[in-house]
Amino acid sequence: MTRTKITTALAAVGLTALTLSALPATAQASDLDRDLSARRVAAEAPVGPLADGNLYAYEHQNRGGSYCKWSGNDGNWSSCSPGGNMRNKASSLQNSGFPSGNDDVIVYYAPGQTGAWYCLGNGRYLENIVHIKFGPNGGSGGGDNQSLNDNIASHKWARAC
């Protein structure tokens, strides 16, 4: 009988220890899932320097190669600074405009802010624009449903996308 009580007591202690050790692991896994989820959201969020009032266009993906920056509108990207010419060459974009009235940027397929367009919201960074397309909104200026990559010719700042 004593042996049965000891066996039962040991089994109860073992079961309790097993249950208690499983609880923190579950909490830790849940915390880990939340942490990974937060990191995923952070990775998808726009990334870039603090607002400096400029639109940036880079020749290559991930801010690579030569670049140009603008604080105002430009009807023809064939001359810009410091890169010299970004017309139909951009592969990544960044809107670092100051949050204010005109803080979004509309990029256009054709010079003179004509043709199909795409609106880049304030604070947005697009590291690779190969698979991002202009809308079906170009009219006679062309560019409907074309990739933004190597197809941007002009831009203007706007109040909203």
Please give a structural write-up.
This protein is an alpha+beta fold. Helices cover 27% and strands 25% of the residues. The chain has one helix at residues 2-44; strands spanning 54-60, 64-70, 92-96, 104-110, 114-120, 125-126, 154-158. The strands form 2 sheets. The chain has a 4-stranded antiparallel beta sheet, with no helix packed on it. Strands 5-4-7 form a 3-stranded antiparallel beta sheet, with no helix packed on it. The termini are far apart. The model is unreliable at 5-47 (pLDDT under 50).
Please describe the topology of this protein:
Elements: H1 2-44, E1 54-60, E2 64-70, E3 92-96, E4 104-110, E5 114-120, E6 125-126, E7 154-158
The average pLDDT value, as a whole number, equals 80
Q: Strand-residue fraction?
A: 15-25%
CA-to-CA gap between the ends?
81 Å
Helix-strand sequence: HEEEEEEE
Helix content: 25-40%
Order of strands across the main sheet: 2-1-3-6
Treating each run of at least 4 consecutive H or I residues as one helix, how many helices? 1
Largest sheet: 4 strands, antiparallel
Provide key terms for this protein.
alpha+beta, 7 strands
